[in-house]
User: Which sequence fits this backbone?
């Protein structure tokens, strides 16, 4: 089974995270940031990943450290669970509608971290969540997973819908990219012989 467990403790956050790539979409998410919990629950369900996250962070300051550090841990968990990436599809993309919102994500599990992020979010907050933290989460995730990710907002007026579409799209894209392709199960999907 492709599983990983990440523990990370700093002066700002204390995080335990487990991930199973070949799961059913179940898990328990408790980060202390309600909107992030909602997005990660959607991510697990739509990617069919089993994901447990427990984070205790300095949310009395703001949500920045918690959101970024959970992104770091989730990225590390994917990298660890994928191992040498033998047999994976590697590339995937999803264009996902959420009412009036439409978001495209595309990924290359390449070993090279790059985030292309063009996701206009019309408000600064959704509830008590700073919407600028969506980019911080994605950047941390990409950096620590070692993937190339493009996120494009194609339509949308409602900030909640736009962000939710982005997380659902990312989940389905990651699920497609990490899927084992039976026709080359024993191969690393690169002419270089490695993904670094």
Assistant:
């Amino acid at each position: 089974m492709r599983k990983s467990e990440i523990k990370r403790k700093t002066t700002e956050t204390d995080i335990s995270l487990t991930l199973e790539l070949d799961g059913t979409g179940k898990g328990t998410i408790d980060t202390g940031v309600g909107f992030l919990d909602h997005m990660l629950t959607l991510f697990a369900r739509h990617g069919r990943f089993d994901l447990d996250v427990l984070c205790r962070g300095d949310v009395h300051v703001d949500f920045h450290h918690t959101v970024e550090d959970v992104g770091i841990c989730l990225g590390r968990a994917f990298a660890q669970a994928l191992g040498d990436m033998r047999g994976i599809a590697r590339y995937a993309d999803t264009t996902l509608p959420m009412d009036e919102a439409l978001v495209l994500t595309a990924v290359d599990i390449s070993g090279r971290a790059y985030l292309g992020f063009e996701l206009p979010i019309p408000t600064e907050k959704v509830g008590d969540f700073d919407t600028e933290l969506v980019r911080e989460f994605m950047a941390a995730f990409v950096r620590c997973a070692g993937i190339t990710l493009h996120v494009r907002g194609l339509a949308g007026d409602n900030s909640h819908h736009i962000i939710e579409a982005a997380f659902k799209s990312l989940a389905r894209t990651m699920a497609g990219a990490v899927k084992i392709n039976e026709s080359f199960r024993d191969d690393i999907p690169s002419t270089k012989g490695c993904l670094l």
User: Anything to note?
Assistant: The beta strands are 3-9, 13-20, 29-30, 50-57, 91-98, 101-108, 114-118, 125-126, 129-130, 148-155.
